[in-house]
Design brief:
20 strands; 4 helices; globular; two-stranded antiparallel ribbon; 418 residues; 63% strand
Length: 418
């Protein structure tokens, strides 16, 4: 992933987490009483900023046109949290301004934003036992990351456009909006549903892709399932998902997936899940395919130390080279550990493998990436950060191969005002 994405999204995520904690303690950022005490909404505003210097070995994300450069970035962010009896939610927004030393034509201003809104108490007044949540994530950048960073994943951001594919440099916007609902049928049984609309569009291009072209992609999915709390530690969910993908170029498709999921809390600090099923992908023209799909996760957190593991095998849309259905496998591992009261270390590793699900297209790719970072608290709310990121990407299309590496090293100062 690009370093500005790592800093920008991570900064917004940490800001939101801090404001949530203060709200739960009964005090807003401005010292006002909580909504639980007064019944009035409490608004918390947490601004932040990061300034960084970066060396990037491949600013164009291509094999045959590699250019390295030094980049100065400034990333202001703001997180706004609302806590009230009727509704609660968090809005995050940020900008990234980047200036290149050797390639000034690559200078840009990017943006990212996220919204989570809980409407449970509002809808409960009309339909008891019904819960509704809304979410939206949007990013505008010339360097969309190949993988989600740990903060974005923990915040619930969809990885439909971040499963290991690294496109050449081009201005792009991606957005995922979702509505999630749950209705309690019995004390331990609930009916769950979710609808999501995602799109990715490309604009100005700065490099020619090694194969194919940029593909504007739209995906809609609808999910319904029944969840049962068998014990206080175990939940089972049986679900069906319908998805529709369309492209500016290539073959659109629909998919039908059935999944059984088991979630278990082993200890107060350790939890995990395991899911398995099958997905049928049906192209607009041509023969369909049936694939085994699955996922697994394991999360451990003890104080400020945390380790997480995620695996996913799914049918997803391709947004590079040509539009088609991909059978996509991803694995991610992340960890964080406080070395001293002021110094903490973090790291993540990702692997992605994608291949066409239909026999009429010969397209495959794999990607490996990793990030390590150190953060030192200079003053309360002010951190110095040292981050290194590596990514390797290889792609095969119709018998032609291309691959490249990318090294990115960043030194940054970040500040949060609470």
């Amino acid at each position: 992933m690009a370093q500005d994405e790592y800093l920008g999204r991570g900064q917004a995520s940490s800001s939101g987490a801090a404001s949530t904690g203060e709200g739960e303690a009964g005090e807003g950022v401005l010292g006002t009483p909580s909504a639980e005490v007064t019944g009035a909404p409490v608004l918390s505003v947490v601004p932040s900023v990061a300034v960084s210097e970066t060396y990037d070995s491949n600013v164009l994300n291509v094999a045959g046109q590699q250019k390295d450069d030094y980049v100065t970035r400034i990333t202001p962010q703001v997180a706004v949290e609302l806590k009230g009896r009727l509704m609660s939610g968090t809005l995050r927004a940020g900008l990234t301004g980047a200036v290149y030393v050797n390639n000034p034509d690559l200078d840009y201003i990017g943006m990212n934003g996220g919204l989570n809104l809980n409407l449970d108490n509002v809808v409960n007044r009309v339909v008891p036992r019904l819960k509704i949540q809304l979410s939206d994530f949007v990013t505008y950048t010339p360097q969309p990351p190949a993988f989600l960073n740990p903060e974005a994943r923990a915040g619930g951001q969809s990885d439909i456009f971040a499963r290991g594919i690294q496109v050449a440099r081009a201005d792009s916007i991606q957005n995922t909006s979702a509505i999630t609902g749950s209705y309690t049928l019995l004390p331990r049984i609930s009916l769950n549903a979710r609808y999501a609309y995602s799109f990715m569009k490309f604009f100005n291009t700065f490099a020619t892709p090694d194969a194919g072209t940029f593909v504007d992609t739209t995906n809609q999915s609808a999910n319904i399932g029944v969840q049962t709390a068998v014990t206080h530690q175990d939940n089972f969910n049986v679900s069906y998902t319908y998805a529709l993908s369309s492209f500016s170029q290539g073959t659109g498709f629909t998919s039908h997936a059935g999944t059984l999921t088991w979630a278990h809390r082993f200890t107060p600090t350790l939890s995990g899940s395991l899911a398995g099923g099958a997905t049928a992908a049906v192209p607009d023209s041509g023969a369909s395919s049936l694939n085994f799909t699955s996922s697994a996760s394991l999360n451990w957190m003890q104080g400020k130390t945390h380790v997480s593991f995620n695996f996913s095998r799914a049918i997803t849309p391709s947004y590079a080279v040509t539009g088609t259905a991909l059978i996509s496998d991803t694995v991610s591992v992340s960890a964080g550990y406080p070395l001293t009261p002021r110094l903490s270390a973090s790291g993540s590793a990702n692997y992605g493998q994608n291949g066409s699900s239909f026999t009429d297209v010969s397209l495959s790719s794999y990607s490996v990436g990793g990030t390590v970072g150190l953060s030192y608290a200079l003053l309360p709310g002010i951190n110095a950060n040292l981050i290194y990121n590596y990514n390797h990407f290889k792609q095969d299309f119709q018998g032609a191969s291309s691959e490249f590496d990318r090294h990115v090293a960043t030194v940054a100062i970040s500040s949060v005002w609470r």
